[in-house]
Amino acid sequence: MKLSAGRVASLRSARSARRRPDHRARDAADFPGFIVYGCGTQGRAIIEFLRESSCYPDLRLTDDDRHIWGSEIFFAPVQPPLEAFANGPHRFVCAIGDNGVRRAIFRGLTADGHLPDTVRHPAAIASPSACIGEGSILMARAVVDTEAQVGEGCLLNTASAVAHHCEIGNFVHLAPGVMLGGGVKIGDRALLGLGAVVLPGLAVGKDAIVGAGAVVIRDVPEGATVAGNPAKALRLTPSR
Questions:
Q1: Which residue, 102, 133, 206, 215, shows the most beta carbons closer than 10 Å to its own?
Q2: For 50-68, how does the pLDDT look when each residue is reduced to its tens digit (9 = 90+)?
Q3: Given 90, 114, 121, 164, which residue is catalytic?
Q4: CA–CA gap between residue 202 and residue 236 (Å, rounded)
Q5: Is 23 known to be catalytic?
Q6: Confidence category of residue 7, pLDDT binned at 50, 70, 90
């Protein structure tokens, strides 16, 4: 079926409306520095690829652990948070695996006027029709397919795959090797463990935990913890 010129323009307009603005281009003068919050093991994996990128020449690091203040990680200095974010606003990414901690820091920094940046490893792939929220991180070989939607502050770890038309909430963590079938919905703050698989069209509720290697064949309720193949409920945790 051949689309009319008007229909093509309408589709392009709708697609553009779904996309987040590119703050790196628009606000570069207003947000000159770039700060990585979190220097633990997950943070170091993120710092390493950012340090090699020409997009982040003024890379600074911060962490709540006072024992590493004044040190360097991959030749980038580690500063106390108050010092790092002085004279802002600044662009930042929260490089912490724990969803709740990542969310709390993200919300505090944005409330203070700092700007979350979306970062992507050079070996990650995101469809041009996908929508990826501010402050989300795509690690090496992560894939976000056609018209998938990823919320803000998410962590898509190494070789995780988000198939076409998935909807991922805010502050979700997909561990390495997670595979989501087409049209899967993942609620806010959900955690999917190493190599977990969710079959097409299913939903995982907010604050749910899917264990490593689990194969999800039915919807997972909010706050549930499931594991196994097929995945079965272990317990319910209060939803925040």
A1: 102
A2: 988 877 878 999 999 999 9
A3: 164
A4: 19
A5: no
A6: very low
